[in-house]
Write a structure and sequence with these properties.
This protein has 312 residues and is α/β, with parallel strands linked by helices. It has nine helices and 14 strands. It folds into two domains: 54 residues, no CATH class; 250 residues, Alpha-Beta Barrel (TIM Barrel), CATH 3.20.20. The strands form four sheets. The protein has an eight-stranded parallel beta sheet. The chain has a two-stranded antiparallel ribbon with strand order 1-2. A two-stranded antiparallel sheet has the order 3-4. A hairpin with a 6-residue loop joins strand 5 and strand 6. The radius of gyration is 20 Å and the shape is globular. The termini are far apart.
C-alpha cells in the first residue's frame, strides 16, 4: 500500500523512488527508508540509503574513515564510486597500522577527493619493525598526506601495548607532525589525563577524533587551538555527554566523521558505516544546536578544509 501523507510528496530525483515525504524532519516511510529532508516538496537523492536533499549535495566532509578495512573488501570500489552522489565531497582515509597507511596512500592516489593520514594506532604499537618510524616519516612526505594519524593512547584493555610504549610512540609521532607541519588525528580511549598532558606539552595542531571526554576537556582543547571530532555516537540513545559536547563546542572547532566501518549512527547502529551516513549525525547535531542541517554541514566542511589546509 503506498505511503499517504498530507505533505507534498516527490520522488527521489536520482533513482525516481516514488512518493517520499519531505517536511524538514527525519522521517520513516512505510518501506523503512529513512529520509533526512530539507524543504517541503523538494526532491532529493536516494542512492539506496536514505534521501539526501539537493541542499546537502557536495557538503559532507568525512574527516575520519578507514576504507582500507577488510569490511569493505567485497564492494569497496562500488561503494566509493557512489559516495559523491550521496553528498560526499571529501574523505580523509586514516591509517592505523603500517599496512593501513600504505593502503590509505593507494586510495588517495585512486580518488581525487580522498586524502590520507598516516600513523601508528596505539593498538598497533607492539611488534613494530625497527624502521617503523622511518617508514611513517617517508609516507608523511607524500603529496596527498594531510595529517599524522591515527595516533594516541588506549588504556581500555589490559592486554594492549604497555602504557609507556604507547606514550613513547604517540610522542614521537606528535614531534614528527610538528616537524612536517601537519596536524594530528588523536585516538583517546580511557586515557584522557595522559593524552591531555602530551597535547599540553607539545601543542600540535590536533583533532581528538570520536571525542569521548567531558565538556571541560573539550573547552581545554579549544583553548589550545584544537578541534573536536564527533560521529555516530552522538545519535545513540544513551549519549548524554556527547550531546552536551555537541551543544557547547564552538561551531568553528567541530569536525564531522564516521570512523567507518565503525560507529554507524542511528538508525544504522550496529551495521557497517560509510561516509554518506554523516547526514544522520549532522541532522542530530543540528537539532541539538537549533540550526539547520545544511548550515551545520557547510560550517563543518569549511572547518575541515581549514584544519587540513586543503582547497575546495
Amino acid at each position: 500500500m503506498p505511503y499517504s501523507s498530507p505533505l507534498i510528496e516527490r520522488g527521489c530525483i536520482k533513482c525516481l523512488n516514488p512518493r517520499v515525504p519531505f517536511d524538514g524532519k527525519l522521517l520513516t516511510t512505510t518501506n523503512g527508508c529513512k529520509a533526512v529532508t530539507y524543504k517541503k516538496g523538494e526532491g532529493g537523492y536516494c542512492a539506496g540509503r536514505g534521501i539526501l536533499p539537493v541542499a546537502f549535495m557536495n557538503q559532507i566532509f568525512d574527516t575520519h574513515a578507514h576504507y582500507d578495512s577488510e569490511s569493505f573488501d567485497e564492494d569497496r570500489e562500488q561503494l566509493l564510486a557512489g559516495l559523491p552522489a550521496r553528498g560526499v565531497c571529501h574523505v580523509i582515509n586514516v591509517g592505523a597500522s603500517l599496512a593501513g597507511c600504505y593502503a590509505s596512500l593507494k586510495l588517495a592516489a585512486q580518488y581525487s577527493w580522498i586524502h590520507a593520514a598516516v600513523g601508528i594506532h596505539p593498538e598497533d604499537c607492539m611488534g613494530l619493525p625497527e624502521d617503523w618510524f622511518e617508514q611513517v616519516q617517508r609516507m608523511s612526505q607524500e603529496e596527498k598526506v594531510v595529517a599524522i594519524g591515527e595516533i594516541g593512547l588506549d588504556y581500555h584493555y589490559e592486554d594492549m601495548a604497555p602504557r609507556q610504549v604507547q606514550r613513547d610512540v604517540f610522542e614521537r609521532q606528535i614531534l614528527l607532525a610538528k616537524e612536517q607541519n601537519l596536524p594530528i588525528i588523536v585516538h583517546d580511549r580511557d586515557a584522557h589525563g595522559d593524552t591531555m598532558a602530551l597535547l599540553r606539552k607539545h601543542r600540535p595542531r590536533a583533532v581528538v577524533h570520536c571525542f569521548s571526554g567531558s565538556v571541560e576537556m573539550m573547552r581545554e582543547l579549544v583553548s589550545l587551538g584544537m578541534y573536536v571530532g564527533l560521529g555516530g555516537a552522538v545519535t545513540f540513545k544513551n549519549a548524554r555527554v556527547p550531546v552536551e559536547v555537541a551543544r557547547q563546542v564552538p561551531i568553528d572547532r567541530l569536525l564531522l566523521e564516521t570512523d567507518a566501518p565503525y560507529m554507524a549512527p542511528v538508525p544504522y547502529r550496529g551495521k557497517r558505516c560509510d561516509s554518506g551516513l554523516i547526514a544522520y549525525t549532522a541532522a542530530k547535531i543540528a537539532e541539538i544546536r537549533g540550526v539547520e542541517t545544511e548550515t551545520l554541514l557547510a560550517q563543518t566542511k569549511e572547518n575541515a578544509y581549514r584544519f587540513f589546509r586543503l582547497e575546495e
